[in-house]
Amino acid sequence: MTKFIEETTEFLQKRGFENPEVGIILGTGLGQLIDEIEIINEVSYNHIPNFPTATVEFHKGKLIYGKLEGKNVIIMQGRFHLYEGYTLQDVTYPVRIMEKLGIKTLLVSNASGAINLNFKKGELMLIDDHINLQGGSPLAFKGVEKLGSRFTDMSAPYHSAINSTLESIAKNNNITLHKGVYASVVGPQLETRAEYRYLKIIGADAVGMSTVPEVIVANHLELPVAAVSVLTDECDPDNLNPVNISEIIAMAEKAEPNMILLFKELIKSL
């Protein structure tokens, strides 16, 4: 993997991806942030050596370099998931590349379902902790110790100072920002009523199919990371209706402006 990382990094550096300060991963239905960027360069994933290719229809599949609030940023417009058939090493490869290029902070967004019924769709949740239900680890491969500590500490995977700043920004702008535990499952099927009950019992406030692998690798690289979920549906097992994916995407887009404001104000303060 070290050789692949060097090849990919060199390719992007030659295309002007220089001295980035912040990396941002955009989740399902969350692409409006691109409109706020002064784009300097962009490359489709399928043109980047050793990079996976986004296969989900609402994930664009571009790596974008530009300026946001005066900072050099790299944005993943579309991410990778286990349910696309990728390995956990594939899913997290871009995090390793962004860190190698020089980012000092990683911001992650996703769309998720609210397990905590005090949380409502259209609101945001700051991830304070997580539960990995994806059945594996992105660090479980031969030679991982060459890239960082094999036994990575996860006692506080989300950066407390960044989270505090995000909470302050939300309060100052009258944005509802819950704080909770995110459970990451494989998917792509949605959960059964029994699974929603199980997730609530084990302490999850929201559930999705991403984010945790990237956060594990960020901690492996000692890279400060924060993550915000856009809550797109309410997962009440006693009143469960069939899921409409187009409605979930529409709810993510509706709630996204608040997430954009949080990220922009945070980047301004870094």
Automatic annotation (TrEMBL):
One of its GO terms (biological process) is nucleoside metabolic process. InterPro entries: Nucleoside_phosphorylase_d, Nucleoside_phosphorylase_sf, Purine_phosphorylase. Residues 22-268 form the Nucleoside phosphorylase domain. Pathway: Purine metabolism; purine nucleoside salvage. The keyword Secreted does not apply. CDD domains: PNP-EcPNPII_like. PANTHER family: METHYLTHIOADENOSINE/PURINE NUCLEOSIDE PHOSPHORYLASE (PTHR11904), PURINE NUCLEOSIDE PHOSPHORYLASE-RELATED (PTHR11904:SF9). This is Purine nucleoside phosphorylase. It comes from Aquimarina muelleri.
